[in-house]
Amino acid sequence: MAEETPTKPAKKEKPAAIEDKPFAEFIQEAFLPALEKALSAKVGDVTLRLEGNTVIGEWGKGMYQFRLYFLEGDIQGPKAFVCSSGGIAPSTIEPFLGDERKVTLDLLVFGLMQRLNGQKWLGGN
C-alpha cells in the first residue's frame, strides 16, 4: 500500500501591483486620479493630462505648469521634470526620482508634490 503524502494548501496569488499595468493604463487609471486628488486639495483648479510619455499639469489659468517626462514610457525608467510660472517657458530640465530602486504610485505622487512644494507653489510654506 502506497503512503499518501500530505498536500500543501495552494498559495494565494497576490494580485498584480498597479504599477505593473501597461504605462498608459497606469498613468490614466491610477497616477492622474491620485495626483489630481492630492493637487486639488492644495490648488483647486488643476488640469492634468498625458501626452505621449509626458504628464502635463497646470492650474491658475495656466500660470503654473509642469511636465513630468517618462523618457522610456516606463515608470521604472528615467524620468525628468520641468516647471514654469507666469507664462514663461521652462528653462531647466532636471532628473526626477533617479535614485529610487522601485517606483510606486505613492512615491510618484509624493515626489511630485514635494517638488512642486519646493517651488512654493502649493500654499503657505
Can you characterise this structure?
With 125 residues, the chain is an alpha+beta fold. The protein contains 2 helices and 5 strands. It has helices spanning 23-43, 105-118; strands at residues 47-51, 54-59, 64-70, 79-85, 94-95. The protein has a 5-stranded antiparallel β-sheet with strand order 1-2-3-4-5, covered by helices on one side. A hairpin with an 8-residue loop joins strand 4 and strand 5 (94-95). The model has no long low-confidence stretch (mean pLDDT 85).
What does the secondary structure layout of this molecule look like, with pairings?
Blueprint: H1 23-43, E1 47-51, E2 54-59, E3 64-70, E4 79-85, E5 94-95, H2 105-118
Antiparallel strand pairs: 1-2, 2-3, 3-4, 4-5
Helix pairs in contact: 1-2
How far is the first residue's CA from the last residue's CA?
Answer: 78 Å
Strand content: 15-25%
Class by alpha and beta content: alpha+beta
- Share of helix, binned: 25-40%
Taking all residues together, what is the mean pLDDT?
85
How would you spell out the order of helices and strands? HEEEEEH
Low-confidence runs of at least 5 consecutive residues: none
